[in-house]
Amino acid sequence: MTDTLAGTEMALETRDLSVHYGDAHAVRSVSLAIPRNQVVAFIGPSGCGKSTLLRCFNRMNDLIPAALVTGQVLFGDQDLYDPSLDPVDVRRRIGMVFQKPNPFPKSIYDNVAFGLKVNGFRGDLSERVEESLRQAALWDEVKDRLGKSALSLSGGQQQRLCIARALAVEPEVLLMDEPASALDPLATVRIEDLIRKLREDYTIVIVTHNMQQAARVSDRTAFLYVGELIEYGETDQIFTNPIQERTEQYVTGRFG
Amino acid sequence: MSPGFDTRAQARRRTGKIFKAACAAAAFLSLGFLAVLLIDVTTDGVKWLSLDFLTRYPSRFPERAGVRSAILGTLWIMGLTAAFVLPLGVGSAIYLEEYAPRSWLTRLIQTNIANLAGVPSVVYGILGLAVFVRFLGFGRSVIAGALTLALLVLPIVIISSQEAIRAVPRSLREASYGLGATRWQTIRHQVVPVALPGILTGTILALSRAIGETAPLIMIGALTFIAFPPTSPLSPFTVLPIQVFNWAAQPKADFHELAAAAIIVLLASLFLMNGTAIFLRQRLRKRL
């Protein structure tokens, strides 16, 4: 670590975290801390384990029968892999946006309301739906057609709907797995603007293939290579003055 | 010209043409057989078809005979079979796809379901006779017939429902789990609604197999002269294919033509059911 994080409150922290898929060792003993209200980017070539690492934070890897997670992931002072912890409780507080927009084949309104309903939300449903759509900068485009199918939206709108859907259940952390990789450049810009705005209220961990994107939106960047955390530090430092040679080679485009 | 390649493109195209012709012949051959069957049955039976034929009970006299009791029996049997097989089949499919651990036991169950789908229907008849007719004491009743046919098509319903459930994209499940939905909430609100068109189509197609089954019902003793409609699940019954079988076994030629007429009725209900399956699938897909 080149910079100090002393005194910063941590949202998430991994300790010696490893993930195996059968014989494949996808994440190798990664220890890193994600400060509250910052945007942390995971970069690295395909297959480096960045998505797998991201999926440890909301126990999404539980859904893959072959995945074996060892080590600790601390969320505040709680170990997310404590056997007595129900992953369902974790996933409301740590939301996720996926690589490909995956709205439910339901109306726009129902997409946002679903998370509220399943979590037994007691407040005003339509008020919360509107609020979430506003937060995701989608409200003005959809306010007149909330009953229409979410699949009628464009790809970029669908992805913002997925963000709205994730925000509706008031998570503390938002995990984003290459949220703009399936979108055109203009839709990407809107998502990036949104990420910069959301960091005021949320901690965001974003996996990206796109190094310029990491440089544009993140406060801190982690570079992973073949499952190992090679370097982790402030984004400026990682891109302008990396310590590890492999990081430098990657961010300057010499491989990956 | 590169010496390493076969440059006789024309010869290769010819092989392709021969293959295409062979495949087309195979397809049209089956269509041809179906056409011959339909023409044969229609020429024999069409003159007996009338509204009276549908509303009259069977009789010793061909000109007074009808399929009313067979149609009502078929409706009873189909209704009850659907009522038994739908919850059992869909429940099993959901368990196997969503809950069951990937263990040797699950694989064993899965293999056996696939094997059961290939067991000859007459074997189910023997099972139905032993369990439903005798052991449970239902006699030669509608409920014994329906339970037997439900067992017969259960593997097909399970397998087609499993396929429908498996076709629900993983991304949809992940999105639901990612919002903090439980497994049950995910199944109930995301997986089943998306899989429903496929489940219904598979079930209707399975039922349209059951509607034509004769052997298992003969095994449980349904091959009797029934000139009245069932009034309860415990009534004796007849169904269309058994009526066909009955008439076809008569010595008089008129009865053979009546059998052909009954076959037309059976085929019409079959087309109707398959049509409903296609309609439902399109409808529910559009409704997204």
Helix content bin of chain B: over 70%
Q: Number of helix segments of chain B? A: 11
User: What radius of gyration of chain B results from the CA coordinates?
Assistant: 24 Å
Number of strands of chain B: 0
**Fraction in helix of chain A:** 25-40%
Low-confidence stretches of chain B: none
Class based on secondary structure composition and strand pairing of chain B: mainly alpha
Q: In whole angstroms, how far apart are the ends of chain B?
A: 55 Å
Portion in beta strands of chain B: under 5%
Radius of gyration of chain A: 18 Å
Q: Which chains have the largest interface?
A: A-B, 28 and 21 residues
Catalogue the unreliable spans of chain A: none
> Major sheet of chain A: size, sense and barrel closure?
6 strands, mixed
Bin the strand percentage of chain A: 25-35%
Alpha carbon gap, first and last residue of chain A: 23 Å
